[in-house]
Amino acid sequence: MAGRCLLCYITDRSQFGGDDRSRRRSLLAKIAEAARAGIDYIQLRERDLSARELELFAREAVVVVSENAREFAAENARKNSRSTRLLINHRTDVALAVRADGVHLRSDDVAPHEVRSVLNASVHLPVATDRFLIASSCHTYDDVIRAESNGTDFVFFAPVFGKNSAPAMQPAGLSALREACLAEIPVLALGGVTMENAGSCLNAGAAGVAGIRLFQENKIEDVVRTLRTL
């Protein structure tokens, strides 16, 4: 294990209580908390929203991330801190429209190199294409190598320990994670990652960890402090 542990909070407002309006408020508060704590990435993954609903909510999230990331940067100016970056799950069009920092591509989405080709061929885009991040979901070593060759910036390798939303899905395990981490691009471990087993992911070569419950069910400042001292 070497270097700074990368952390990605993946959102899921359905885990909060109340009606949908209350859950949205709770999620925006959690996003603000994550940005203030110095999380590297937040993946907005509200899969039940329509494209228009996602765009409107993402615009709110962009503002929240920006405001709270500036607060974190101001408080940690002497620590060479980096701002939190917001990724939109699946929808490159929404990510571009709201000026998010990048997109997360699922395994059944278009290939990363196709997204790059569109970005490079387009003019008057609302974001700087050279700074637009592309992350991909991977489940095998071959997936990771393919993502690397297709221009992905980093990948999520899952499920390492299991997946609460898909209990029948067989965990890949630490051996598979270790093999995936032989790739040149950063690999973030996902799936059943907890405060207790995150260290084993980093020792297997992961550049960091990602999760939903890891961040939504804990005080994010405590998660960041603990995992970045492993």
CATH superfamily: Aldolase class I
Helix/sheet category: alpha/beta
- Count the strands? 8
Largest sheet: 8 strands, parallel, barrel
Query: Could you spell the SSE succession in H and E letters?
Result: EHEHEHEHEHEHEHEHH
Q: The CATH topology is what?
A: TIM Barrel
In CATH's first tier, which class applies? Answer: Alpha Beta
Apparent shape: globular
Short description:
This protein has 230 residues and is α/β, with parallel strands linked by helices.
Describe this structure in words.
With 230 residues, the chain is of the alpha/beta class. The longest helix is centred in the first third of the chain and has 25 residues, at 51-75. It is built from 9 helices and 8 strands. The mean pLDDT is 92. It has a single domain (6-227), classed as Alpha-Beta Barrel (TIM Barrel). The chain has an 8-stranded parallel barrel.
Q: What attributes characterize this protein structure?
A:
single chain, 40% helix, eight-stranded parallel barrel, 230 residues, TIM Barrel, 9 helices, 15% strand, alpha/beta
Question: Secondary-structure map with pairings?
Answer:
Layout: E1 6-10, H1 20-36, E2 41-44, H2 51-75, E3 85-89, H3 92-97, E4 102-105, H4 112-121, E5 133-138, H5 141-149, E6 154-157, H6 173-180, E7 187-189, H7 198-203, E8 208-211, H8 213-216, H9 220-227
Parallel strand pairs: 1-2, 1-8, 2-3, 3-4, 4-5, 5-6, 6-7, 7-8
Helix pairs in contact: 1-2, 5-6
